[in-house]
Amino acid sequence: AKTRHFKWEVSYIYASPDCNERLVMAINGQFPGPTIRAKAGDTIHVELKNALHTEGVVIHWHGIRQYGTPWADGTASISQCAINPEETFVYRFEVDKAGTYFYHGHYGMQRAAGLYGSLIVDVADGEEEPFHYDADFNLLLSDWYHQSIYDQMVGLSSKPFRWIGEPQSLLINGRGQYNCSLAAHVAGGTSACNVSSKDCAAVVFQVLPNKTYRLRIASTTSLASLNLAIGNHKMTVVEADGNYVEPFTVNDMDIYSGESYSVLITTNQNPSSNYWLSIGVRGRKPNTQPALAIINYRPNSASKLPESTPPITPVWNDYAHSKSFSYKILAREGTPKPPPHAARRIAMLNTQNRIDGYIKWAINNVSLALPPTPYLGSMRYRLKNAFDASKPPESFSSDYDVMKPPTNANTTQSTNAYVIQLNSTVDIILQNANALADNVSEIHPWHLHGHDFWVLGYGDGRFGEKDVSKFNLKNPPLRNSVVIFPYGWTAIRYVADNPGVWAFHCHIEPHLHMGMGVIIAEGVEYVKRIPKEAITCGMTGKMLMNNKLP
Ligand SMILES: O=C1O[C@H]([C@@H](O)CO)C(O)=C1O
């Protein structure tokens, strides 16, 4: 195994991801940031310099469990202090499992400003993937707003509330089209794109006929749930979130923010043509053009536009279609199985609420607020009053009607955390509900830091004790992200085997900003000495200054 060294600088640059120039957060002047490619067992060493003028920054390595390095998880106020301008922080961690990952900002809404990139882990030398392919491609999917993230954040925390609305464009590897279509010549009804800048030209994937390609697809969208399809080609899903799944073949797939997949495609179509790859919006009434990329069968010219129309995204609220995809995802044989029983079950009700007229999201009526001192340090060194020491609720009222808006929408904000017994097995039931408006319940993709979990099942309506007997303990997929469908529930199980403090939250950037997440802590007393640079702020900063490191 190798140690791979990177020297990165985060700064804003001018770029035109969808042919409209804006400030974009970049790494070493690149947007999206550089792709990290490593082998399982390698150590990644990133010296991250904050070259922003007046704000802090952190980077989260999404899907990497950070065994033994919880301070490298890159979550501001949770695992570390935000890195100040001109300062450098070293992220050093092992990538222990092959798979398709990515990294992104985890401070304020910096992810939505463009702070993201791919992290691909190949199998270790001498190991083989359990499927064959000739070459692979990365597709990092995102959505893009023309409004700055400051404008967005202020709007979300203003009274009256100003919702950010739907994104202006969808991006594939940082490139998209705003209010126009690359396929206007065949699609009709849309205006043709004037792709004047290379920043926003069509992304081209060059292939040879009769080969098999692995598409590594990850979504780091701020808001949008996506559907991806390729004209004339079927896709065989083989990986989800860095875990192998039992292969299954589909014409199109949904992908939610925070998820990653690998699919295999075979280039067995008429080789004299090129084909569209399309991503469009699911789960919210779309007001954003699909993004298109070109599968370019060599030796055709890449600029030869496909003659067929791009695949059409399923209707946004066809949830049956989305569910049928999610339900097909099962563990590949050989995947570790869940323990047969859980020691604790936490039910988490997801609701939209109000505090003094400000709109929030809450879990069991607690809307997450982050403390000035990162939990990892304040818990490790047992500092008093660094955060709310109360216990967050284990469940919610038995008469809560998830099909109706909350009868009492008033919520409370708290920095409290779930403390989990080290090495215990925990079930979490994520329960969706009606939002503030009548007849509205939205998709929320939840992401757990520091662990993979098993997805034991999904259901419609309110979860009940009878549903426990339907849990899939035979071949539940291992993942780090999972969706809850409108008015439905999702059950997960995980083993709390990673000493540290971890976020578990909705991966929709504005929803997290509005409090949609919880903090879980386990075995913090076993965390080895935390690098001082990670905790030199707030109360841990004072502790270090007083030379009181226990
Ligand atoms: O958090 C959200 O707020 C709006 C809406 O519910 C209130 O304007 C919306 O669509 C969200 O997802």
Descriptive overview:
This protein is mainly β and 550 residues long. Helix content is 7%, strand content 38%. It is built from six helices and 33 strands. It has helices at 149-156, 184-187, 319-327, 375-380, 509-513, 538-545; strands spanning 3-15, 22-27, 36-39, 42-50, 59-62, 88-95, 99-105, 116-122, 135-144, 169-172, 175-176, 203-207, 212-219, 225-230, 235-240, 243-250, 252-255, 260-266, 275-282, 291-297, 344-355, 358-363, 366-368, 412-414, 418-420, 425-431, 444-448, 453-460, 478-479, 481-484, 488-495, 500-506, 517-522. Strands 11-10-9-13-18-15-16 form a seven-stranded mixed beta sheet, with no helix packed on it. A six-stranded mixed beta sheet has the order 22-21-26-31-28-29, with no helix packed on it. It has a five-stranded mixed beta sheet with strand order 12-20-19-14-17. Helix 4 links the parallel strand 23 (366-368) and strand 24 (412-414). It starts with a strand and ends in a 5-residue tail after the last helix. Ascorbic acid binds at residues 163, 435, 442, 511. It is found in: Secreted. It catalyses: 4 L-ascorbate + O2 = 4 monodehydro-L-ascorbate radical + 2 H2O. It holds the Pfam family Cu-oxidase_3. It comes from Canna indica. It is an enzyme of class 1 (oxidoreductase).
